[in-house]
Design goal:
CATH superfamily: LigB-like
Strand order of the largest sheet: 6-3-8-2-9-1-11-10
Shape: globular
Number of domains: 1
CATH architecture: 3-Layer(aba) Sandwich
Bound molecules: 3,4-dihydroxybenzoic acid, fe (iii) ion
Structural class: alpha/beta
CATH topology: Protocatechuate 4,5-dioxygenase, Chain B
Order of helices and strands: EHHHEEEEHEEHEHEHHHHEE
Strand content: 15-25%
Helix content: 25-40%
Oligomer: single chain
Length: 280
């Protein structure tokens, strides 16, 4: 049977990708940020997952404003990255698991989450930056991946509570897969940031830290916030934080905090890393 061992959150800021490509990890701007990822990488070595379900938002590479599904799942055996204009080099192909994806899609749709199923999917910085943060030191990606894209771009967006519920349905879907597989969920994006308009550069450190605390034992607090409230507090792109709730919903009610790291700013964003392990 497939088993969820834990999950993690991470921001996906493109500048991180540029820093990794340029080998800037030990420079003054980046050292503290990248040092914070070492315990997460060690945890991944310890739990040794077979597959990562990576919850992220596409920013216009695969879906554009004329055509955005609310919830989409990759159902392919491989996924490519491509140039999206940030100057990031395209990564190696990611291996998927179409059979597992179709099982998840079927289970989620049976649970009334009407997923868009994508047999071709380009994955953008929302996907490749988290993968690079964990595994860029290896010659190839050591896990299979399933992309799960949430619309955080074109309003109307799904609510925080709907994202938590999607995560809970995802848990049922994963745990009903008959093949053996160790699964880790990545909930990516956030934390507070606004890249445009009068409030460009807005960050709310108190809100970010409260979310990192509350998501562990009281995710309902975050799920109770409206999207307009989250945008008011955390900025227009701070709404990406709703994707963390998909990861949290997929884990057990009781989780252990393995590692927590917050660094601000990274580019224009508060950056949060949280590693959670399922308690028995
Ligand atoms: C930045 C953050 C993002 O989440 C993103 O998608 C693009 C840029 C930033 O802070 O630069
Ligand atoms: Fe983003």
């Amino acid at each position: 049977m497939a088993k969820i061992v834990g999950g993690l959150t991470t921001s996906h800021i493109p500048a991180i990708g540029l820093a990794m490509a340029g080998g800037l990890e030990n420079t003054p701007y980046w050292k503290r940020f990248f040092d914070g990822y070492e315990p997460a990488k060690e945890w991944l070595v310890k739990v040794d997952p077979d597959i990562v379900i990576l919850v992220y938002n596409d920013h216009g590479l695969n879906f554009f404003l004329d055509n955005i599904p609310t919830f989409a799942i990759g159902c392919a055996d491989q996924y490519e990255n491509a140039d999206e204009g940030w100057g990031l080099q395209a990564t190696a192909t990611f291996t998927g698991d179409a059979e597992f994806s179709w099982h998840l899609a079927e289970s989620l749709i049976r649970q009334d989450f009407d997923m868009t199923t994508c047999q071709e999917m380009l994955v953008d910085h929302g996907f490749i930056v988290p993968m690079g943060l964990m595994w860029r030191h290896l010659p190839e990606w050591p896990v299979k991946t399933i992309p799960l894209a949430i619309n955080t771009l074109q309003h109307p967006l799904p609510s925080a509570s709907r994202c938590l519920a999607l995560g809970r349905a995802l848990r049922v879907a994963i745990e009903s897969y008959p093949e053996d597989a160790k699964v880790v969920i990545f909930g990516t994006g956030g934390m507070s940031h606004q890249l445009q308009g009068e409030r460009a550069g807005h960050i709310d450190v108190d809100f970010d830290l409260k979310c990192m605390e509350k998501i562990v034992d009281d995710p309902e607090w975050m799920a109770g916030l409206s999207n307009s409230k989250i945008i008011e507090i955390a900025g227009s792109e701070g709404i990406e934080i709703i994707m963390w709730l998909v990861m949290r919903g997929a884990l057990n009610d009781n989780v252990k905090v393995v590692h927590k790291h917050y660094h601000v700013p990274v580019s224009n964003t508060g950056s949060g890393l949280l590693v959670l392990e399922n308690s028995a």
